[in-house]
Amino acid sequence: MDNWNKLSNSLLEKNHIKIPIEKRFFLSFIEDDETNINKNKILEEITNNGFLENDPRLSQFRNNLKILVKTNSINYEEFKYCIDNHICILKKIFQKDLIIPQFKIFTDKITEIYNDTLKYNEGKCADYIPQLARVNPEQYGISICTIDGQRFNIGDTDVDFTIQSCCKPINYGIALEELGEIEVHKYVGREPSGQSFNELLLNKEGKPHNPLINSGAIMTTSLIKKELNISERFEYIIDIWTKLAGNLYKIGFNNPVYLSEKNTADRNFALTYFMNEINDDKKIGFPKNTNLNETLELYFQCCSIETGTEVLSIIASTLANGGINPFTGERIFTSKTVQNILSMMLMCGMYDYSGEYAFKIGIPSKSGVAGAIMIVIPNVMGIVTWSPKLDEIGNSYRGVEFCKKFGELFNFHIFDNIEDNKKINPLTDSYNDINMNMFSELCLSAQEGDLEHLKMLFNKDIDFNQSDYDGRTALHLAVCEGHINIINFLLKIVRMNPNQKDRWNRSPHDEAKLLNNDNILKLFI
Ligand code: GLU
Q1: Tell me: the pLDDT tens digits for 444-457?
Q2: CA 351 to ligand 1: nearest atom
Q3: In whole angstroms, what separates CA 301 from the centre of its chain?
Q4: Which of 161, 164, 373 for mutating ligand 1's site (highest number of atoms within 8 Å of CB)?
Q5: Per-residue pLDDT tens for 65-79?
Q6: DSSP 8-state assignment for residue 287
Q7: Which residue ranges of the chain lie beneath pLDDT 50?
Q8: Residue 377 forms beta bridges with which residues?
Q9: What is the pairing mode between strands 73-74 and 37-38?
């Protein structure tokens, strides 16, 4: 009895009925005649789908693999032990039940755009404070995190920078959670201002135009946990940032930037006192008993929160996921709060380029003067680009170029689906793109020699012995096309019946005999 037969006797049940999911997963990793599977191949599969080393959902699994399995080879009992308690997440991965099913193909395209946009070297770093002026201007990083927690990083993704204006949508969200939409919008409007982000200007009702310009951001900051002292208020905000980032990282703070912000803040002071001048009854002003200095300090502190693209992309993914962090499953914002945040970002997130950006790219985004752009594709993913050189409007030069190319390539513009366009849709793979049912997928992948897809279907517990109206099975098709690896998989792992006749009374085995190929024929013995 060869190795494989021994294994199949112990693992597979008679008549191919209901193989437990752990067995399917294990079998889908079997290679050649081995009885054990390769540990690195499992890890590779997980990584290729965007599940990184520090993903808390798989840390126990990775640990189990490391501790229990000293060599690279792992048997079924060990595998079963390791995946215990992780079936849900591994099921998503091995069955490709992921928002971006072909993650590697998608991120290869992102890499291309990254490399392509590296050449844009125009613009200059913000220089209103020395700390921003001194940053190495050549740096460029992009991080992605999907709502399933699939992640990708390229370039300078581990360099920290201050978030600056990217704090504005988050502070707006925090205020909404605490006070509700009606109360918050008593103090701040929700229209684009049509003016610069720090313009000394209020709307007709005497409120700042929206929460994403400086006056509006100072106003929403003033609303957060008013009853607490300033240290506790900042702690409260940082705590929410930490939760938005899935408790995976410590959120930093840049004290020199904070001190500089505070020292060069004439305009922000002016905006604050302007809003506070309530003797003109056209102005709403701040809520009663607002301490203006503390409000400004808290606002500067929020702008000086320091982190990198990786963390910010997780935060963006929490927004993309309707307020629930993909790693912890914790709801931080209600979906209504997120809807409000994203509406603002879509209308006013990119300074004086917001209208053009909404028109061309059509994805809620927020940029900051340190060079970050936080991009939220609702129900799909968060993306953060960071490159410190800014264009004349104040957006990261490379970041905007990235967004333009990204928007041209993928159909993520909010109105893309009503347009007949030729853009790539990363939410589908080549099979469900053309609306195939599972059986058609099975036939097509057997015919095309797509072993990876067949393994995925096997993991999904598809009935492989189905045939079409001519009685042809996936095995017939694989034999016809001479795909040795597919025939091997269908016979030895799936255990398809080699003698099932089609309507011309031919079995896959009969057809193999006609091929005159010893290597294929051997598989039938
Ligand atoms: N700290 C800056 C300010 O309030 C933020 C600028 C920005 O990123 O737009 O002026």
Answers
A1: 999 999 999 999 99
A2: 9
A3: 28
A4: 164
A5: 888 767 888 999 999
A6: P
A7: 1, 9-16
A8: 381
A9: antiparallel
* Phi, psi torsion values for 401, nearest 5 degrees: -65, -40
Q: What are phi and psi of 497, to 5 degrees?
A: -80, 115
Closest CA to 407 of 362, 461, 345: 362
Answer whether 369 contacts ligand 1 (Cβ < 6 A). yes
Pocket-testing residue among 221, 351, 369, ligand 1, by greatest number of atoms within 8 A of Cβ: 369
Rounded CA gap, 386 and 108, in Å? 19
Half-sphere exposure in the Cβ direction for 113 (13 Å, CA): 23
Q: How far apart are CA 95 and CA 88, in angstroms?
A: 11
Residue 245, ligand 1, Cβ within 6 A: no
Torsion angle defined by CA atoms of residues 187, 272, 219 and 203, in that order, rounded to the nearest 10 degrees: 40
- Chain Cα centroid distance, residue 253: 25
Is residue 294 within 8 Å of 23, Cβ to Cβ? no
Q: What is the pLDDT of residue 15?
A: 44
Q: Which two tokens stand for residue 211?
A: 């929460």
Q: Is the Cβ atom of 164 under 6 angstroms away from ligand 1?
A: yes
Ligand 1: residue whose CA is nearest its atom 2: 164
Structure confidence at residue 72 (pLDDT): 86
Ligand 1 within 6 A of 368 CB? yes
pLDDT at residue 3, as a whole number? 55
Write out the DSSP string of 430-484.
TTGGGT--HHHHHHHHHHHT-HHHHHHHHHTT--TT---TT---HHHHHHHHT-H
CA of 164 to the centre of ligand 1 (A): 5
Q: Which residues contact 273 (CB under 8 A, 6 or more apart)?
A: 292
Widest CA span in the chain: 96
Q: Can you give the pLDDT at residue 199?
A: 86
Position 13 scores a pLDDT of 44
Is the C-alpha dihedral spanning 462, 490, 512, 5 positive or negative? negative
Both structure tokens of 3: 């190795």
